[in-house]
Amino acid sequence: MSVENMAETFVQLADTLVADFDSVEFMHLLADRCVDTLEVDAAGILLADHHSELHVVGASSERTRLVELFELQHRQGPCMECYLTGAPVTVADFTEPPQRWPEFSAVAAEAGFRAVHALPMRLREQTIGALNLFTAAPGALSSSTVRVAQAMADVATIGLLQAKLLNQQELLAEQLQGALQSRVLVEQAKGVLAERLQIGMGRAFETLRRYSRSHNQNLSKVAESVIAGTVDVTAWGDPGTPG
């Protein structure tokens, strides 16, 4: 974990914190930068809606997203506990008995992960989600890595809450709900692309994301266009380089 890489990460995250920022893209940026900066193998982000129900809103890979979804469907696991308690949770080895969450551990191990480090996304007394870091090797992260990871989670939390503007719970719930609704659109668009271009869900998301970036368009707006059929995805040609 180089100083240059860490500095670049925080600059890139801070540069995204502008009015009307793309919350879904921001969550995926956070997940990607966690992998690049912290030298973990995968990262996932869970956010709570206004009913305190958790949703997967960012993941560095499709297999990470599926592991997170399994945990949410079974309503138990280290990441969910991190959100509920507001405290970090570490499982240093999914294959080492005894396991507190054996079903989740088995699924995570099958996906190629041996450990997870869940960190709360929290501002003061309010916890809005969890940042989850997966590694293919067993063992806990170093204390310095955990500190940097928590700082990244804190930056993301502040960005979502926009504390200076969102002082009332109603506005906060609206902001978080908007992020979750955007995520639903992105998932639907992934399915459309996967079917029309005959590619996997992970490749479909990267195609969608690259199109959004190359055309300087909001990711959720591009997703809406794909779902509505107002953009000809077959004209994108090679799914890896949409045009």
Automatic annotation (TrEMBL):
Q: Which residues, if any, are the signal sequence?
A: none
The UniProt keyword set, sorted, is: Kinase, Transcription, Transcription regulation, Transferase
Q: Which SUPFAM superfamilies does this UniProt record tie to the protein?
A: CheY-like, GAF domain-like
Which Pfam family name is an example for this entry? GAF_2
Report domain ANTAR positions: 166-227
Give a yes or no for keyword Hydrolase in this entry. Answer: no
* Entries under PROSITE patterns matching the protein: ANTAR
| InterPro entries attached to this UniProt entry | ANTAR, CheY-like_superfamily, GAF, GAF-like_dom_sf, GAF_ANTAR, WH-like_DNA-bd_sf
**Is the Transcription regulation keyword given for this protein?**
yes
Q: Could you identify this protein by its name?
A: GAF and ANTAR domain-containing protein
Organism field: Lentzea kristufekii
